[in-house]
Amino acid sequence: MHDALAPLSVTPVTHSMPMAKNHRPDRSPTDTASSPSPGTVLDRLASGPSRASRITHTEHVPPRAGRHAVWPDRIRAEVIAAVQAAGIEHPWAHQALVAEHALDGDSVVVATGTASGKSLAYLVPVLSRLLDGSEAPNGRGATTLYLAPTKALAADQRRSVKELSQPLGNAVRPAVYDGDTPVEEREWVRQYANYVLTNPDMLHRGILPSHPRWSSFLRALKYVVIDECHTYRGVFGSHVAQVLRRLRRLCARYGADPVFLLASATSAEPSVAARRLTGVPVIEVADDASPRGELVFALWEPPLTELHGEKGAPVRRTAIAETADLLTDLTVQGVRSVAFVRSRRGAELISVIAQERLAEVDRSLARRVAAYRGGYLPEERRALERALHSGELLGLAATTALELGIDISGLDAVLIAGYPGTRASLWQQAGRAGRAGQGALAVLVARDDPLDTFLVHHPEALFDRPVESTVLDPDNPYVLAPHLCAAAAELPLTDEDLALFGPACEDLLPQLEAAKLLRRRAKAWHWTRRERAADLADIRGQGGRPVQVVETGTGRLLGTVDAGAAHTTVHEGAVHLHQGRTYLVRDLDLEDSVALVEQADPPYSTVARDTTAISVLETDTEVPWGDGRLCYGSVEVTNQVVSFLRRRLITGEVLGESKLDLPPRTLRTRAVWWTVTEDQLDAARINPEILGGALHAAEHASIGMLPLFATCDRWDIGGVSVPLHPDTLLPTVFVYDGHPGGAGFAERAFHTARAWLTATREAISSCECDAGCPSCIQSPKCGNGNDPLHKRGAVRLLTELLRSAPDAPAEDRGP
């Protein structure tokens, strides 16, 4: 470790310098000059009847000057010349600092803003080392492994590496190795590529179990690049942490000790999260020295409609419809834009609505808007990425599959349909615009949801708060156990290996022996079964084999749906959208993991309903809140999808409900829960008639608000409220992690409970509705049809509960 570095020569520059990824301008000066200012674009969007009143707040982020430095003198001259040939004369100060650490052999995380040149920061030392290695007698020399959370990002980075390293000739041989790589190319990658780009899934299932075939690559491994490392959170992040420990173990057996180079969006304590992820000490570089153009960030609340939803609640226009309108307007103006939406269906809907409205203006414009989401076939994704790069597409409705670092320089505006779950993700998405140095517009369009409504009326919670810490737990036994089996299958596990995988190994290994998954022979544990041990770990928590969506009649494969989402998204009767076309699901075969669909044009969308029961397995921690209790521990959740609603497109009006017959699913996980006593209910004036509704309303609103305090979104967590729970014998509200073994979200809720429940009470009490609506206490995923709910009872109940809450530690007083 090197605590001190040679002083860097730092020179301020103006913010007008190009600032796309690696600082290459994406458009000509004429294009940039002719682009309207972000303020002008916003004014045009806000013109027209009632539009201006929908903007609840506008934040102006001023431009920032950049600070240049010089590359460390150990970087090869040929690499510096290649970078200069790409139009980058000098690095930003943070890039030079990252390169210095990498050359010193220190693992380092660069956590700076979008378009700050993080890729170049790690690429320059990596290319220099590969160039050194190319002169080795065996010709293979040094190697580098690059990990991205998505295939699209790996493909995009390969293009960048090829462009930058072109002047270096054959010294740098980048290649993508993932599920889309043709079989005939894979052997070449193993034998000859020295910069292999892949994802954690392929590393876990393909590379590590076949490590003898990768021995020459692993033996020469000098750097492991982990891009967009802030996305490795919760259960997925915990799995990836154990995959990286397996990689380090195999590298050590081959005599290698790679340095980890991590790139992250701005996050709290990035070095702490990076160390938990990799298991090695990591130095932090978080002082962003890149320039930034002006950013105008608007908060936008769709208007109330004349319609009424469940229980007569007022209904706002949907964020999907509002975003589709805005994307249409931006496209007509010629403003290059991307609209981020949380769900695959939402991305499809926005693109379909925008295309229909654009066709009314100019048929040629309709072809310049498309959808981009996971589940598309590889050739569809690549075609969309090329069209976006070339400017052929003016507007794109995308899921977060496009958020993660794909170089889409030159965008003028970003629309965000619903708060993406964390402030880190919000800024990451907003940063997609303005990547060529021009000013940019970002608009957060609120959903009819407690958290979104709270945020558009409390902008300080977004703009005056630091971004969140990344939550992951590598010691989760549900995560660790299958990786111990996978590690033993790769090489027998010895006592010396156990420190690498964490203290929980000691308790787990006897259990794995008892289950006859591992066997102790001499001084090591061995995998004893014929099956592939790597198949035990479902690292993305998708719940099993993806469900294939197949068109009846033609037999054509349209795409896939995660197994965990199949019950709610491709059940019989569900509306399924793909590439702008609408399909109805005729049959879901869970045994063969196939959903059969046929093209249709129903005037509605579908939403699944489910029921949930919960039991307490073990209480780990318990804190008195007056006579009530705040608890954290292990629970078992039983969930069953029982029906689905048909909702009219655009308005969301409920047209009807149909029953379903799907099997229940059981989940053992972690939860936070609180109880209240009879005396507290009396003090809050809660009688038995309204108790269930008050608890239920508080549960819904607290789930909606938790993403402000933990790096999750409401679909990562679930809840149950019971007027008399059999395990606590008291009225109880549970909020649980929606992943086996827990994801750290409920634990974070326990430690921030006072601030979290205070914000929940404020969100309910400040809502302008009379009896409750989707902006405060109604939930889009409620299995009971949002019945019963009692808004005023929830406020009184939370007020009484918080009256007795112990003082919160300083770090837990706010999001």
From TrEMBL:
Gene Ontology terms describing biological process: interstrand cross-link repair; nucleotide-excision repair
SUPFAM superfamilies linked to this entry: P-loop containing nucleoside triphosphate hydrolases
CDD domains recorded: DEXHc_Hrq1-like, SF2_C_Hrq
Region (Disordered): 1-67
Gene3D superfamilies: P-loop containing nucleotide triphosphate hydrolases (3.40.50.300)
SMART domains, alphabetized: DEXDc, HELICc
InterPro entries: DEAD/DEAH_box_helicase_dom, Helicase_ATP-bd, Helicase_C-like, Helicase_put_actinobac, HRQ1_WHD, MZB, P-loop_NTPase
Protein name: DEAD/DEAH box helicase
Organism this protein belongs to: Streptomyces phaeolivaceus
